[in-house]
Amino acid sequence: MCLIHQQLTKHKSFELQANLFDSLSTNTIFQFDISWSIKQDHAGPSCTFILFRVLYFHIMIYDHRHWDWENQKWEET
Q1: Which of 44, 45, 46, 74 has its CA 20 to 30 A from that of 6?
Q2: Residue 44 is assigned to a structural domain of this protein
């Protein structure tokens, strides 16, 4: 479920997602991931946090644009 979606600049947005899992839906007790993608669709930093197979948070700042692989640049919007 998306709790917050806020446009930051012309091409960037911030998003916070949170969910409560059924305890049988994942085998993860604890997980913390940080990533930063570049030169791909919706590129940007993200962080995922899962606790006790129940609580899930995903935070990201992403680019709205899609990456044009053929021309190696952002597609014009």
Answers
A1: 74
A2: yes
pTM: 0.75
Domain count for the chain: 1
Determine the Cα–Cα distance for residues 48 and 43; give it in Å rounded to an integer. 15
Q: What angle do CA 28, 59, 33 make, to 5 degrees?
A: 40
pLDDT in tens, 56-69: 899 999 999 999 99
57, 60, 65, 71 alpha-carbon torsion, rounded to 10°: -110
Residue 7 lies in a domain: yes
**Host domain of residue 16:** 2-28+36-67
Place of tokens 């700042």: 61
